[in-house]
Amino acid sequence: MKLITIKINNYRSYYGMHELQFAVSPDKNVTLIHGAMGAGKTKLFNAIQWCFYGEEEYDEKVSSNKDIMNSIAKKESENKGSSETKVEIVFEHEKDRYHAARKFSSFNGSVENKDSLLLLKAEQMGDYNPVDNPDVEMNSILSKSLRKYFMFDGEKIQNYSKYGHEIEIREAIKGLLGFDDIEQTVSILSKIDDDYNRNIQKSTKSKELQDTIGKVNAIKNKVLSLEEEIKNKEDEILRGQKLIQKLDKEQAAIVQVKEYIEKQEKLKDQFASREVKRKALRDDIISSTENIYVTLLDDIFKEATTIYESLEQKGEIPAPIRAEFIKRLLDEEECICKRSLKKGLDEQAINELMNLFKKQNTQLDNLVTKVPSDLSDLKSEAVITRVNVLQKIKDDSILQTEMKDINDKLKEISDYLRDSDAETVALKEKEKIKTEEILDRVKVDKVRCEFEKERLEEELIAYEKTKTKLLENETETQELKRHQFYTSEIREQLSSLYRIYEGETKEKVRQATQDIFSKFMWKKDHYRDVIIQSDYVLDVHDRNERLAREGLSAGERQCFSLAFVIALARVTGKEAPFIVDTPLGRISRDPGELIDPRVKILEALPGLLEQVVLFVTFEEVREGEETEKAISPYVGARYKLEYDEKNGCTRVIKIV
What is the spatial distance between Cα 400 and Cα 113, in angstroms, rounded to a whole number? Predict the structure, then answer.
């Protein structure tokens, strides 16, 4: 899919007709659209999505047509009788040309509630004909579920490199799978399996089997209920995180508090990072304490050593004559003085040696001989265990202190923002604090549900084994058993297939993120392998194989997140325009960075994607500066959006 032109008429701040042509040349594939804050960049960005899908930005509330129609046009309809809001986009897909349009009207000030997509496809002679089921066709070209990897707000992608946003990473990768049908099939097969359980329970005469199946069904129902509760908690967490992000963005728009907001975000990331480390450390401490008993055996070690040395001095251990030595003498028919022993002549000596050999306890001798070595090993283990546990407790204490310090700093910033003279900032900070408190409670509830679900699943496995064993002796339910077996096999195969494909997709995204991130970074040798952990935490190793996400600067984190989003887009296998609103808004050159990360991104983007549309502020790309010089060679179309003070609307100016 490649955008050719867009016409926008009476859409939000765009009064009247405006047209933009997109860059389509392979060498100059970037369309640059400049605009100050509030000039209309986001509205134009949303107009593209609204035309294709009847929705604006994918994670916002659906707006009514009353909000979408330009206010001047709506007022004119009260006087003139009618006005029209319309967005038209011409695009190419797999060598075919399409014309998409979405519109609605206002009559005498009354705005239509409905709008619909008109999709025309060009024939060989150049004529356009309507496409049947336009929404289905549009979804096949670029589905709603995949569009978020190609059209997004650059200021929101930083979530991917933050702690606590693993749900979004998991959902993003899951969205690439496109395996909804398999998930539904597995769910249906599970329900069929439950039906077989109920039928077997009715048919069997075994009271034990009936009770076991009853417990299996009861546990399954509890697990399903918990899964639904966990999903609801995750949705609530996502909504809360989006609200906090929205409030942050609104606060950051006020110049005097922007610095505090950025510092607050960095501190929150540091706190979350230490929280993760502390949890891992506590798990490690619990694991280490399995051998803690050896640190309590000092007195026993001393007493055992004293007893052993006393017996050794008395010659009682090790045995005065070792069994191996006696056996060698007998095998070689040799006396201890090296004289040969001859049968018949030296029978008494040979018999004496035989009697000595029979009295030996080789196994006991070996065990006794090993006592000093074993005692030494246990002492060493006690020292190591004691040192390790004490060090980990010390590390935990350090982390706890650091978290308290971070919390204190966060409270200072929060107090400043809450008590700010800017009333709007203070209100938003209070709302943010309230939302964060709710989120903390929801996260605790989610963890509780997850632990309970794990416990029930372990219990379910035990009952399933019991059920299987009891079914082996069943004769009345042979047919039901056979059908249930095949149902379970199919379900397990499909689930296994899903897991394999999920793992492969995860690896593709990881590798693509790593390749792209390396193109964005000037410290190429410092950051090595990108990793996506089993719990969907996105991180990166430094050259010393240490997890380094926490050490990334604000600019590097944004580069990391952007690399992940581009990786998602590339892994889809779809050719679609990459449209970003404010891609570099949160990236700046930190002290000590030899190269501006914005320059690296702008140099790399055109080569990574087929078509790029960037909605940028003048702070992101300013004429004559490094960023402008980096992107200019790839720019095929350039526009400026200006706020018209006379009517409060947006003007589109083409930059030649």
Answer: 55
